[in-house]
Structures are given as structure tokens and as C-alpha cells.
Amino acid sequence: MASPAPTDAAGGLPVTYERHGRIGVITVDHPPVNAVSQGVRGGLVAALDEGLADLAAEALLLVCAGRTFMAGADIREFGKAPAPPTLPEVVAWLDAAGKPVTAAIHGTALGGGLEIALACHFRVALPGARLGLPEVKLGLLPGAGGTQRLPRLVGPEKALDMILSGDPVGAEEALAIGLVDAVEDADTPLEAGLRAAERLLDRRRLAGRDVLVPVSARSGRITGTDPALFARRRAELAAKTPHLFSPHRIVDAVEAAVTLPFADGTARERALFLECMASPQRAGLIHAFFAEREVAKVPGLPTEAPLRTIGRTAVVGAGTMGTGIAMCFANAGLPVLLQDSSTDALARATATIRRNYETTARKGRLTMEQVEGRMALIRPTPSLDDVAGADLVVEAAFESMDVKRAVFRSLDAICKPGAILATNTSTLDIDAIAQATTRPDDVLGLHFFSPAQVMRLLEVVRGAGTSDTVLATAMALARKIGKVGVAVGNCHGFVGNRILHQRGCEAMALVGEGASPQQVDRVLTEFGFPLGHFAMTDLAGLDVGWRIRQERRKAGDPEAEAPDWLDVLAERGRHGQKTGAGVYRYEAGSRVPLPDPEVDSVIAEDRRRRGITPRIVADEDVRERCLYVMVNEAAKILDEGVAARPVDIDAIWLHGYGFPSWRGGLLFWAGQEGLRRIAAAVERHARRTGSPRWQPSPRLLRWAEAGSIPG
Ligand code: CAA
Prior knowledge:
With about 700 residues, this protein is α/β, with parallel strands linked by helices. It contains 28 helices and 17 strands. The longest helix is centred in the last third of the chain and has 21 residues, at about 620-640.
């Protein structure tokens, strides 16, 4: 096959060929993750040609340098014109190689990287390796033979599990299911691969014939498939992920592996892959992938900012948030002191943590040894003095400025110099809290989202005094504990809750006019949110918002709303799911929200009191008003510099509020929805209501004029 010059964008040689004895070694070296870029593809073909032409090479070995095997196609090339050789061409070239090719896998073999390995004759994995086809997470399907070869190796059922979930399997499981032929403990993939390739040649000599046939020529376990398998999977998808495009095409492609010969199945896979590639969901999911990584790079924060060491952590307050935050640290192997003056609260927290871990263990995701290891990292204490030696203290006390300032005054007196003092407040002024200390440069907000041990978002709130070192350390810590840390500025509600608040006001206004909470929630779940606004309020607890509103009214905040029907429900003890009743009612032990006539009458009474005659509200009005008001608020947040970039807002809503990932994030979606249309609607609602909520953001108007959102 003719191949272009095998250089990458940096002009280096991403793929090299070198012979070790009778084995020709092809090495991919394309940091950071050996993504299969055009340079790598061209290099692979050129190196393969060289190996096939090398008369002294009886077998070939494919290995990767650096931290991982090839982690997939180069995602940055998607959406551009395909540049030859394509991945399917590289795979076909390997498949047809006249010499046995072994792939030695370390790190992660993902997507196109695994498809390349699948086209080799033999796969050996190092013990820590992970192998998977995560294309579904990018709105795609494996488009270089993965849906045809994987079922031939592991059977269609397991192949569907892997391709539909996108989750990788470890080396041992890969061996057990037949995805790899051997697991080889060695210092380097080269060492493991050379040993395996030598053994293969010996086996061939002993057998006196070729012992290997490419996967494409095998039928393996592909016969005898349960005929109901595909119908069952389609029904599951329709119930679980009705919005998603690519999973249905994945089922079609794997079915083709069972019903069609290899070449026809591969052609079908290609056609389905191209459909996925053209779908807006692919663009949204890829934006979401890069957004998660982009937010780690904080504009204006010097990359060389020194970091403090976080060895010992402490959490003050053993309520729901404090308990979850303590688990986040323990999950990352960090010792954590969980402090609360109430020994009852500590006992409850410890029991909750154990119960959570044991449930995870029952699902097979932790061993009991790991459960005990994590429990041993969490030390409950009633004494605040015990936190004196912590490198980081996260305060998760009651959401009241007086309480928080008192805690910070004490922490200032107790904690060692250089300790980072963080508050988990979701709404209060970080600077006012920092001013209770003599070291505002060490203070910042670490706003976890409930349940803290599950939700990936961490808003890292920079106060006026927070130093670069403290911010950089917090961002690094976020990554260490598996969170998506997004740096934001200090304002009421920061970024996520500030936008949520506007959506909430609009949702309340719609209900005031005649919509029902169920209608609002249905429109939002049809849009793709996992929960509607009011079901989410029930999950968070009505008492939380009620308490915040009371604080604001007490503080004389002119923007604090008058008491409404939500306050009435909270006063009646309907605090949401946890009390079995909120905006909805819940049957014992169930999380399914059910409409409740008591709530309908509270809403009706509220409308009567305000002199409103309810009207029929169109679903389109609900969609437009709930979502466009968020976009307008997001633009204002950028106007004020509270968030640095549109991508920060996208990541916040994706990881903290269940914004549908296939829509890419709030502002990515806004770009697709049409900025002119959104701005025109915002202006119309501003004229209609005169409300500051709808006052158009100058930035939104600029975006509308330009037709796109820069950066
Ligand atoms: N293409 C381009 N860049 C990639 C990439 C890819 N496939 N995978 C990772 N990167 C980049 C990241 O954007 C990041 O860049 P910056 O440093 O500039 O931000 C860098 O590589 C390091 O990535 P991470 O920060 O994610 O590093 P990690 O060690 O935490 O994780 C990883 C490594 C597990 C490989 C993770 O990056 C990952 O899951 N990558 C995506 C893998 C994937 O989805 N592959 C399938 C692609 S689709 C395909 O292959 C099928 C096809 O036929 C088209």
C-alpha cells in the first residue's frame, strides 16, 4: 500500500520499525496517548510494509511507547475531511499481513487502538492494561471492524455489553473472555511482546504450519446466537436511553456480524458509522469530552504555580454533604478527619458511609478489603482541635453566614500555617467568610454537588484574596479525587446555582400562570435532563432552598422573592424525597415522583391569592422560557467574568446538573439552537415582563449578531 510521509503534526516520527532478532518491531510513539492520527496511520502502513519486506523478520510485533497503547482515533480530526490512509484501510492492511503480527498492550487500548489490535493475529496484555470500545460515549460506533471482530472473539452478547457501555475491561477479564490471548507480566510492553512473538514462532515450527488465522476469517462463537438477543437489547435501549442515536446503530452493526459474512458486515458497519459521524449528537459528545479537559486549564493561572501538598484532609460537619465529601477523599486514598460536635451525627455519618461502601461491594465494584481500607482512612472526631494538622479543611456546616464565619474564626486560630481552608457553601459570599480569618489568601470555596461522592462537578470558587497557589492546588486536588474542577468567581450561587435559580424562577412563573410541575418536568426530561426541575428540587430538599430564601429575606436582599407555594410546602414539612413528600409524593422506599392533589390545591390557592386565572401553557413555551433564560444568565455570568469561558459553563451544567451530554453543554447547545432566535425571544420576554431576569445580556446580543459564540 502506498503511504504518505509518516510524520506527525510536530514533524516527528510517530511510528518506527526496528528488528530484534527474528522479530520486526513496529513502535508507535505519539504522546500523550498515541492517538491514531493521520501521521500514525501513515506511519503504521509504512512500518508494516518495511516489516513485511524485511526477509529476516519472521514475525512482527506492534508496541507503543509512553504511558499507553493507542487510546483511539485522533478525536481532533473528527468532522474534518478524512485524510488517507483511513483507519479501516490500516486495519485491512494489518489483517492481510503475510506474517503473524502480535500486539503488546499496556495502559489503555481504546476505540481505534483496540480495533488495530483486533486486526493483529495475537494479542498479549500487560497485567494493568484496560481494553475497550468507548465510541458510544462520543456518539459513535467502532468504525474500523470493531463491531465485526469483537463478536467473533467474545460472542455477540459480551460484545454488545462492551460496545454499548463503552466501559473497558481489565487484562484478566480480557483473557477470560477471549479478547486477548495471553497476559504477560513484564517490565515493558516490548519485553512482553517479544516473548509472546517468539513463543508463537516456536509453536508454528512445532506445528509445521501457520497456527494463526486473522479474526476476520474466524467464525468462533458467532454461531448459535440467541435470536431474541437483538430485540431484547433494542427494547432495553428504548426504555433506558431513548434520546441516544448511536446505541441503536451499534445493535444493528453487531447483528450484522451474526447475520452477514465478514466483508458485508464490515460494509454495514461503515454505513452505520458514517450516519453516527454525521449526527449532531456526535458533535455534542465530542465537545463534552474536550470541555472536561479544557476546564482544567484555568486562564490566567500560571501553569508553573507551585502546588501545596495535600496529605491529610479534614471535613467539618458530618451532615449529608460532609459525609459525601469525606468519602471523596477516602476514595482517592487520602486520610480524612470527619469532625462534628454531635457524636450522634458522627455515628450516623459513619454508618451511612459503611452502608454505601458495602452496597458498592455487593455490586462487585469494591472488595471487602477495599471497603475496610477506605473506612480506616476516615476518622470521626467531635473535637475541632483535631483538625489542626490537616493540609486541607473543608467546612460543610449549616448554610448560615454566622455559623460559617464562626467556624472559620476557629479554624484560623487552630490550623497550621499553610493549611487550605475551604467552604462548601453553595450560595454565601466567600470573601465575607474569608474575612473572618487572618489568611484570606488560603481561603476558597470547594462547592461539591449532592451526592458529593457521586457527582463529578466541583466548583472551585476563587475569592478576592485566594492565592494562585491555593487555586492551583485545589484544581489539582479536584483531578486527584476524580472530579471535574471548574474555577469560578465569587457571586451569589456562583455559576451553576445562579443559572439554576433563574430556571427555577421561570419554572415557578410558568406554574403560576397555569402549567403544572409535572408539565414543566416532562418538557425538561424530554429535552434530555434525567430529572425535571421540581423532581430535582425534591431530591435536593425543599428545606435547602427555603432556608436560603429566608436568609436572603432576613438580609434584606431586594431580589429575594416573596414567599410562594414552595415555601408553604416546606413549612408543612414536605421537604422532598427524604420526607416522602415535596412537590410530589413518594411511596415508601420509592423514588418515583407521583402527583399529589394536596400540592395542586396549594398551587391553586397561591394563584388565587395573586389574582391569576390559570391558562393552558404550551410545551414550547415551557421549553423556551426554561432554557433561554439559562442562556441569558450564562452570558451575564461571562459578562461579569464570574466564569472565564463558555466551556466552563458547559462543563458545570454537564457534570453538576445532568445537562444532556449529547447536546454538548448549555452554550454549545445554544449555538446549535440558534443565537439569533434565543436573543429575539429574550428581548420579547423582556418587553413582556419587564423582569431583570429577561434583561438581555449584551454578550448574548453580540453572539446573536455574530451568529456564533467565540472561544
Ligand atoms: N484523540 C485526541 N486527543 C486525545 C485522545 C484522542 N483519542 N484521547 C486523549 N486525548 C488528549 C486529551 O484531550 C488530553 O489533551 P490535553 O492534555 O491537551 O488536554 C490528553 O490527550 C490527555 O488525556 P487525558 O487528560 O484524558 O488523560 P488521562 O490519562 O486522564 O486519560 C485516556 C487517558 C483514558 C486515554 C482518556 O484520554 C480517554 O479516554 N481518551 C479517549 C479515548 C477514546 O474515546 N477513544 C476512542 C476514540 S473514537 C475511535 O477511536 C473510533 C473510530 O473509529 C473513530
